[in-house]
From TrEMBL:
<dbReference type="Pfam" id="PF01063">
    <property type="entry name" value="Aminotran_4"/>
</dbReference>
<dbReference type="GO" id="GO:0009082">
    <property type="term" value="P:branched-chain amino acid biosynthetic process"/>
</dbReference>
<keyword id="KW-0100">Branched-chain amino acid biosynthesis</keyword>
<dbReference type="GO" id="GO:0005737">
    <property type="term" value="C:cytoplasm"/>
</dbReference>
<dbReference type="GO" id="GO:0004084">
    <property type="term" value="F:branched-chain-amino-acid transaminase activity"/>
</dbReference>
<dbReference type="InterPro" id="IPR005786">
    <property type="entry name" value="B_amino_transII"/>
</dbReference>
<dbReference type="GO" id="GO:0052655">
    <property type="term" value="F:L-valine-2-oxoglutarate transaminase activity"/>
</dbReference>
<dbReference type="InterPro" id="IPR033939">
    <property type="entry name" value="BCAT_family"/>
</dbReference>
<dbReference type="GO" id="GO:0052654">
    <property type="term" value="F:L-leucine-2-oxoglutarate transaminase activity"/>
</dbReference>
<dbReference type="InterPro" id="IPR001544">
    <property type="entry name" value="Aminotrans_IV"/>
</dbReference>
<dbReference type="GO" id="GO:0008652">
    <property type="term" value="P:amino acid biosynthetic process"/>
</dbReference>
<keyword id="KW-0663">Pyridoxal phosphate</keyword>
<dbReference type="GO" id="GO:0052656">
    <property type="term" value="F:L-isoleucine-2-oxoglutarate transaminase activity"/>
</dbReference>
<comment type="similarity">
    <text>Belongs to the class-IV pyridoxal-phosphate-dependent aminotransferase family.</text>
</comment>
<keyword id="KW-0032">Aminotransferase</keyword>
<feature type="modified residue" description="N6-(pyridoxal phosphate)lysine">
    <location>
        <position position="220"/>
    </location>
</feature>
<dbReference type="InterPro" id="IPR043131">
    <property type="entry name" value="BCAT-like_N"/>
</dbReference>
Length: 373
């Protein structure tokens, strides 16, 4: 278990605002990095919260107001009305973005504009105002740089940045909140699954569903996540890594895993469930489709039945937190199908390519990577 040690000397906030976040980060980086590296076991990062130094926050009135200038504040608890829209009616969205260090130096984000746009689409669905793309990306950059000493060394993990948008104003009758908060915090992370990079064993759930047509499954609403906890805990108690959900209408087409998208490979054809309102438009999903097309796989977004996926050559999951995770088996109604998990795996090839783009090993000819220092 990794613990944050007590001595975490902070650069005072007034100093940050005076010299600017990036100057602050450059000047302070080396001693802070040293201080932090000595107290964290970077080799054993999992996916749990490690409290960092700063978070970014910005508020906005109701739907006719705009988000104005935000600011970095010390990381810590926030105060909310017991009647806040998010607490009472689940009016909230979140995003996930990773900041990485590179071997040769530098800190990079991967496609943060995509997260900004996804949050804007989600905000429309959830009747919330949203920060502009520039505000969103700036907030993410500032949060990463202010917490730079928490970004793991190259190859050891990343700083997972979590933007939240939620109704913070009080609202008793069911209606949009009267005030909104956009808040960005961060935590260093390693592998999402306790399996590390080992193949996942998925359990197909046919009682609980993740999302329904016309619901909010297609956006990153906080309301999509608590309902799957029951299914996850049941699957884990039975020894599975996670749950694969079926569509709620016919209980026949696969949709997603609890925290990530899913792909199957059959021959040279890579397929993933089409975006239909109940499947999240993952940014890793989109990037892997692009990379696979360039590597001359045929890529299809389509309805995939449970029988199709049980007959696949290879199956894998994608997500920001998860990365690209191979699936070793799927169990459905008592039948277990095992997939090839020894190399050469196509999922491994696709993930390596993605990581090579993120880490600058191959040229980023798509403009996906954003340097922030
Ligand atoms: C992410 O991949 O960033 C997610 O938001 C999934 C989350 C459940 C950890």
């Amino acid at each position: 278990m990794i613990r944050r040690r007590v001595s975490t000397r902070l650069i005072p906030l007034p100093y940050i605002s005076k010299i600017g976040a990036s100057t602050f980060a450059t000047q302070a980086a080396s001693f802070l990095q040293d201080a932090c590296e000595s107290s964290i076991d970077w080799n054993n990062l999992g996916f749990g919260l490690m409290e960092t130094d700063y978070m970014y926050t910005i508020k906005c009135g109701g739907k006719d107001d705009d988000f104005k200038a935000g600011k970095l504040i010390r990381y810590g608890n926030i105060e909310l009305s017991p009647c806040a829209g998010v607490l009472n009616y689940g009016q909230g969205l979140f995003e996930g973005i990773k900041a990485y260090r590179r071997e040769g130096g530098g800190v990079f984000l991967f496609r943060p504009q995509e997260n900004a746009i996804r949050m804007q689409k989600g905000a429309q669905r959830m009747c919330m105002p949203s920060p502009s793309t520039a505000q969103f990306v700036d907030a993410v950059k500032q949060t990463a740089l202010a917490n730079k000493r928490w970004i793991p060394p190259p190859g050891k993990g990343s700083l997972y940045i979590r933007p939240l948008l939620f109704g913070s104003g009080p609202v008793l009758g069911l209606a949009p909140a009267s005030e909104y908060t956009f808040l960005v915090y961060a935590s260093p992370v390693g592998n999402y699954f306790k399996e590390g990079t080992a193949p996942l064993n998925l359990y197909v759930e046919d009682e609980f569903h993740r999302a329904t047509r016309g619901g909010a499954g297609g956006v990153k609403s906080i309301t999509n996540y608590a309902p799957v906890l029951k299914a996850i805990s049941r699957a884990r108690d039975r020894g599975f890594s996670d749950v694969l959900y079926l569509d709620s209408v016919n209980k026949r087409n696969i949709e997603e895993v609890s925290s990530c998208n899913i792909f199957m490979l059959k021959g040279n054809v890579l397929s993933t469930p089409e975006i239909n309102g109940s499947i999240l438009e993952g940014i890793t999903r989109k990037s892997i489709m692009d990379i696979a097309t360039n590597l001359v796989y045929r890529v299809e977004e389509r309805s995939i039945t449970i029988e199709d996926v049980m007959d696949a050559d290879e199956v894998f999951c994608t997500g920001t937190a998860v990365g690209v995770a191979p699936v070793g088996s799927i169990t459905y109604k008592g039948n277990r199908v095992a997939y090839k998990t020894s190399t050469p795996l196509v999922s491994k090839k696709l993930y390596s390519r993605l990581v090579d783009i993120q880490t600058g090993v191959v040229e980023d000819d798509k403009g996906w990577v954003v340097e922030i220092n």
